[in-house]
Amino acid sequence: MFAFLANPDRFMAFSRWAAPMFGILAAILLTAGLWFTFAAPEDYQQGDTVRIMFIHVPAAWMAMFTYVCLGVASFLALVFRHALADAAARACAPLGAAFTALALVTGSLWGQPMWGAWWVWDARLTSVLVLFLFWLGYMALRAAIDDEAKAGRAAAILALVGLVNLPVIHWSVVWWNSLHQGSSVFAARRDSGMHPAYALPMATMVLGYMSAFGAMWLVRIRAEVWRKRAAVLALRAAGS
Amino acid sequence: MLDLDPGKYAAFVWPAFAVTVAAFAWMAIDSLLRARRWKREVERLTREGE
């Protein structure tokens, strides 16, 4: 699959129909997910704030998932010097940063009524803030170096270093005493897992977020391919 | 039935959803505008090169 899509022409042909398909799927899933979100019962302890969970948890998962995508694309770009992988990495960064910012902001809006604080220097929150700083650092580094090839390599190394933070985020609630709750969606113990009434909106929103990311990532990679083609055409025009 | 009244938590629930909608709108619009801009640039340069 990757070898097939590694060819920019084949990727452009594939993404031409795949991006709108993902977009339509995302619109359907997010509409249904929002409906399920506001149809779900109030939590007996958290009241209506539980509805924030259906936008906070998918954003937090997407923050990590998009960083895995960045890491894989950066590895392929660094090792195989593949232009499309580099474009995919560059295209991923603003989306990943937005999902991470969403996780932080919606978490803060959920934390204030439940914990009595907008922010605490808790291991989970701090490690997600570090992830957000990695996103900003990645984009700043790419923008700071004029030579695009050098910028891509430097940013790819930074992205790979940042992968170390992902297990820290995931296990932070286990390794340290944390105000943030532990895993409940995939909890091993049945009595600490998510109630089925909340599983449907959660699953729908997670799939909606993933589909939306798929659509927007493909569109941004297409934009990157066109940007590189425009640079080549401009060089040719300047040389002739 | 939909429950659209978050009661005393409205000040937290609605801003959380509003910021999510705003972020999704920015991501979608920025992605589409970027793609359209560079596609048009390629088309313009191709026309000029012919």
Describe the structure.
The complex is a heterodimer of chains A (240) and B (50). Chain A has eight helices and no strands. Chain A has 240 residues and is mostly helical. Chain A is globular. The mean pLDDT of chain A is 93. Chain B is mainly α. Chain B has one helix and no strands. Chain B has one helix at residues 10-49. The termini of chain B are far apart.
Summarize the structure.
With 240 residues, chain A is an all-alpha fold. In chain A, 79% of the residues lie in helices and 0% in strands. Chain A has one domain (20-38, 49-177, 190-228).
Classify the secondary structure makeup of chain B into a structural class: mainly alpha
Largest interface: A-B, 41 and 36 residues
Helix content bin of chain A: over 70%
**What fraction, in percent, of the residue positions of chain B are helical?**
over 70%
Distance between the termini of chain B: 61 Å
Radius of gyration of chain B: 20 Å
Question: Strand-and-helix sequence of chain A, N→C?
Answer: HHHHHHHH
Poorly predicted runs of chain A are none
Distance between the termini of chain A: 38 Å
Helices and strands of chain B, in N-to-C order? H
Q: How confident overall, as mean pLDDT of chain B? A: 95
Number of helices of chain A: 8
Can you tell me the overall shape of chain A? Answer: globular
Strand content of chain B: under 5%
Give the structural class of chain A.
mainly alpha
List the helices and strands and how they pair.
The complex is a heterodimer of chains A (240) and B (50).
Chain A: H1 2-5, H2 8-39, H3 53-80, H4 83-115, H5 123-144, H6 148-162, H7 165-175, H8 196-239
Helix pairs in contact in A: 2-8, 3-4, 3-6, 3-8, 4-5, 4-8, 5-6, 5-7
Chain B: H1 10-49
